[in-house]
């Protein structure tokens, strides 16, 4: 059933957003009417959630411009590697590239959605940018974006518990089974795990700083815009008095 459900999900999440519910219901009906009368598959199809607008936009970007998305995810791999290596020069260089590439890819996604007949509001564009930024932060978020089956926008502040992949993606791929540890390497494995955990913590805190810096920059821009609007409103009141 898993393979059949995955095939159906791939088809559904590539459709125009307005066609999703009708196509999902039709697919569930077909599964229920099949010779095997696969009611479990029909129920699983019916349970597939309609993607939010921003998730739909990102899914279409992944499907129509996979190379651009892969390049973004490779940048995320490089950033995390630089953070683990504590290489400040490389981190700065890659961060500058990220700050250019994410907004550019967001604009590309917005243009694509509008070509496909789906208007993109400012709030949806912000969610798309947040999703692409999150895809750089962790391998799990990157896999969620690359699946092309996102169900909702991603947000990552750099701390807190990671959400389960199943809550982000329709029919996620099963995780790889861990390889069995070699005998006689218990101490080495324990030390390696401790080092990996320390590196992961450094990575998380670095990502936190980067994300909070971006949020601060965004808040400053919003504050400047709000002050301009307040001044304009005050002038209008004086003119009408």
What is the secondary structure topology, with strand pairs?
Blueprint: H1 2-12, H2 20-33, H3 39-46, H4 53-64, H5 66-84, H6 88-115, H7 122-137, H8 139-146, H9 186-240
Region (Disordered): 173-197
Biased composition (Basic and acidic residues): 185-197
- Estimated share of beta-strand residues: under 5%
Main beta-sheet annotation: none
Low-pLDDT segments, ≥5 res:
174-179
The total domain count is 2
Region (Disordered): 173-197
Biased composition (Basic and acidic residues): 185-197
Description of the molecule:
Residues 185-197 have a biased composition (Basic and acidic residues). Residues 173-197 are annotated as: Disordered. This protein has 2 domains: 2-46, no CATH class; 53-171 and 196-223, no CATH class. 29% of the residues are buried. The protein contains 9 helices and no strands. The longest helix has 55 residues, at 186-240. With 241 residues, the protein is mainly alpha-helical. 71% of the residues lie in helices and 0% in strands.
Short description:
This protein has 241 residues and is mainly alpha-helical. The chain is built from nine helices and no strands.
């Amino acid at each position: 059933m898993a393979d059949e459900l995955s095939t159906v999900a791939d088809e559904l999440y590539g459709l125009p957003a307005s066609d999703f519910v009708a196509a999902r219901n039709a697919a569930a009906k077909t599964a229920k009417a099949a010779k095997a009368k696969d009611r479990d598959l029909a129920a699983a199809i019916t349970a597939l959630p309609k993607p939010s607008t921003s998730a739909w936009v990102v899914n279409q970007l992944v499907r129509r411009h996979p190379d651009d998305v892969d390049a973004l995810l490779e940048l995320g791999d490089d950033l995390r590697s630089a953070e683990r290596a504590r290489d400040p020069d490389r981190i700065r260089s890659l961060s500058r590239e990220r700050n250019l590439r994410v907004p550019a890819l967001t604009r590309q996604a917005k243009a694509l959605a509008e070509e496909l007949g789906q208007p993109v509001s400012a709030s949806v564009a912000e969610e798309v940018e947040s999703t692409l930024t999150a895809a750089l932060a962790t391998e799990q978020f990157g896999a969620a974006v690359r699946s092309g089956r996102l169900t909702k926008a991603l947000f990552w502040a750099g701390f807190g518990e990671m959400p389960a992949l199943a809550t982000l993606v329709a029919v996620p791929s099963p995780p790889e089974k861990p390889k069995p540890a070699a005998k006689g390497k218990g101490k080495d494995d324990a030390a390696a795990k401790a080092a990996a955990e320390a590196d992961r913590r450094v990575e998380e805190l670095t990502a936190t700083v980067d994300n909070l810096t971006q949020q601060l920059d965004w808040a400053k821009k919003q504050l400047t815009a709000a002050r301009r609007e307040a001044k304009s409103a005050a002038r209008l009141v004086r003119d009408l008095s």
